[in-house]
Each structure stands twice: as structure tokens, then as C-alpha cells.
Sequence to fold (473 residues):
Amino acid sequence: MKKNWLTLTLLFTSIALLLVLQGIWLQSVYNNIKRDLRKETSMLFSSTVMTMQDSIIEKNIKPLPGDSTAEVFGNVPLLRDTFKFHHQHIEMRRSPDTDVVYLSSGEPKDSLRRFFRTMVSKFGANRKQRTFVMKLTMDSLKPELIYRNFIRTLKKAEIPLTFSVIHLDGTRPKGEPRWGFSTEPFPFPFPPRGSFYGALFPDVRIFIIKKIAPQLLFSVFLTLLTGASFFLMYQSIRSSQRLVEIKNDFIGNITHELKTPIATVSVAIEALKNFKGINNAELTQEYLGIAQQELNRLSMLTDKILKTAIFEDQGVVILTERIDLEKLIAQVLATLKLVFEKHQVNIQFEKRGTDFTINGSADHLTNVFYNLIDNAIKYGAEHPEIKILISDLNDNISIAVQDKGLGIPAQYQKKIFEKFFRVPTGDVSNTKGYGLGLSYVDSVVRKHRGTITLESELGEGSTFVIILPKNLA
Fold:
């Protein structure tokens, strides 16, 4: 882990920067949509109020025959302003909450007449009417009515937001809600003077989040994809590092194993050459026997390495034949007789049943039993005790190889069938190996469509149980 601190730092920094950039991007999208939403609702609000104003003007404008006075509207103070503007006669009477405006013109095509043409046409067929009066009060535009009309407008625009209509002084309200906004103040040009209305939306987060749902989903997907890619990349780096470490251990072990027989043969030849052992037939035979034994071991080592290389490229290839597992195991035990004597191995071979024939590869199964017995000797006690039990299970055959050796810690039991894996023994390793034997055994058993399991307790020994089908269907 310490070797990879820089890699981990870069990976986490990259993910953190990606999250920051996505956060800035999403915040920008959120703010843009909120700004556009405020513009749209302000426009809709002003359109709603303007439509209501037109309706109010329609209801409050009346034709005034002749040279009538303001008495038609009741008690209006006699403060009067009379002036002409673009050929039109305008008379205004004011009170604190009411304006009465008299509009008249001697010109049939003046601008004011054109402005009111649509409304005037609704008052009757008398198109010669030139004088009108209009009265507007502070009760003409009520917030409740604005609220109801604005709800309908928002519904048509598919903006389902909660709001309230507020009376403003020409500016947006102070203390505007953090998660909402208010529309631009819309002025009402008639009394009371300085009258403004607006719509206040207290919380628009959910609405905006729904709007940016695609961006949010894309951001989450991108983050997960990047995180998964970095995780797989880091796992690949760690796997490569472990493979390099395992191969280095393998090279160290195999080098030691190869040097031992070479050194032994060299010593035997040197003894024959320098100490005139060639003249002693008995001594010569002994040295040659030692040399032959070591050369055989050297040949076996190189053959195992070559088979491992072939196995790496092609996998285990089996040529099936009808074989008797009882006889096969007996042959392996006979071949290892001298090894048993050398290591003072107490070997027991038991059987349960009568039919032990299967379809399989004799060569590969021979190597399987040799590897399991060899491991039992290597990791056994000073005088290893090994028990082999073969059982007839009707359609299957079970072979159990039991020892009373060191045992395997629980945390390593699932890894012992991995290639190049060896149970850690600290800085000292009294038993040499390559971490290939059990991987090969597992591959051969699976090729025969069988299973291999391990039962082991630390200090109590291990039992490998192989179950093979009698027929490969």
C-alpha cells in the first residue's frame, strides 16, 4: 500500500476534481434555469395583470354625452386639470384614491380615439361619440383576483409552483427566500400612486431539480463510471504487482532447487576425479548413483517448468481412457517407496467399495496424487503420517489424502489453489516449492469434471478430498 500512495493520491484527487467540476456545472445549470424561470414568470405575471387592467378599463369607461360634468360619478372633489394634448381635450379630477378622466376630441382620427377604438365599439352603434369618462380606484385591481388569474396562466404554461401575490413599493422585497424568488415589480399606473404588484415563489428547488434531472443522472453515471474505471485500474496495478512479487519468489525458489542438484553432481564428479574414486568400484557406483539421482531430479524440475509453460498457454489437455484408480494410486505409492523410507513416512492406503474405474487421464491423475502425497511429506511432522482413503460412491469416486502436519491457516485456505501462491512462513522457508502443484491439481480435477476441497486446522494437519465422476458425459 505504501508503494501506491502516489497512485491513490492521484486517483482520489482526480475524482475529487471531477466532483467539483460537476458541482460547478450543475450549479451553473441550476442558476440559469432559475434565472430563466424568473424571467418567464415575470413576463407571465405582467401579461396577466395587463390583461386584467384592460378588462377593468373596459368596465369603467363610459360615454359622456354633450358637455356633462363629473356628477355622473358622485362625490369627486372639484380639483380639476384641463389641457389639450394632440388635439384631444383631457380633463382630470383627483382625490387621494380616485382619478376621473374625461376624454374628448374634435378630431375624428386622434391617437387617443384610435387607442380606445376597440373598447368604444362595444358601447353601441353610435360611432360619433367623442367624449368618454373613466373612473379607477384602488379597489379596481385586487390581489385575490390577480392570484386566481395567475394560477390559470401558470397552469397553461405548465409551471406548477406555489406562490403568493404581494404588494410592493417598486423594488423586490427584502429578505427574499433563499430557495425561491419574486417576479419583477409590475406597476399599476392608476391610484394608489406608486402601486406595484409581484408574485413571490418561496421554494422552486424541486421544480428546477426535475428540470435538470437528465444532467443530474448523467453526472451520477459519469462519476460511477469514472470511479469504477479507477477502481479496476488500481486492482489491475495491484494484481500486476502481486504477480511480479510471486514470480520473483518463484524464480528464487526454482533457482535454489536447480542449483542443489547441479552442485551435488559437481561434487560427485569432483570426488571421482580428485580422490581417485574411479579405482574404487563400490565408491564409484555410489557417486554415480548420487549423480544419477540428482540428474533425475533436475530433469523432473525442468519437465515441470516446461509443463507449466504449456499449461499456461493451452491449459490442461486430457486424453481419456478407462483406468482403475485403486491400481493407479498403488503404483504411485510403489514409486515413492524409497522416498517414504528416507523420510520415515507412515503411509496407510484404505479402500471402501469395489468399483474404482473411471474415464480419465492416467498421466495427469498420477501427477495429481504425486503432488498431494509430496505436499503431505513436505508439510508433515518429523515422521509424517499419511492416510489415503478411496471410496466408491456409486456414480462417483472419492479420494481423501490426509496428513497430520502443520495445517493451513483459515485465511489462506481459499487461495492455495491459485497459481504461484504459497502459504507465507515469514522470512524463513524450510520447505521449497513453486506454488504450482495445487493449482495444477485443481485444473486437472476440474478437467475431469470433479471437485477438490480442503479441510484443515492449524497444527492439526490437512485433508484434501477429491470427488471424480466415473463417466465423463
Summary: The chain has three domains: 1-211, 213-310, 316-469. The two ends are 47 Å apart (CA to CA).
